[in-house]
Model the fold of this input.
Amino acid sequence: MSANDIRPIVKLRSTANTGYTYVTRKNRRNNPDRLVLRKYDPIVRRHVEFREDR
Done:
């Protein structure tokens, strides 16, 4: 199993429907389900939830 299988690159899309995205890596062993992070969206100028987009 390579490092790319364990830590894939995922795209986090804003739930504020602005189309703004972050790109990050996640550990599949620790987080097998979809990732949800609260991050800053500069378009709406506030922190919103970003959900993993596949």
The chain has one domain: 3-53.
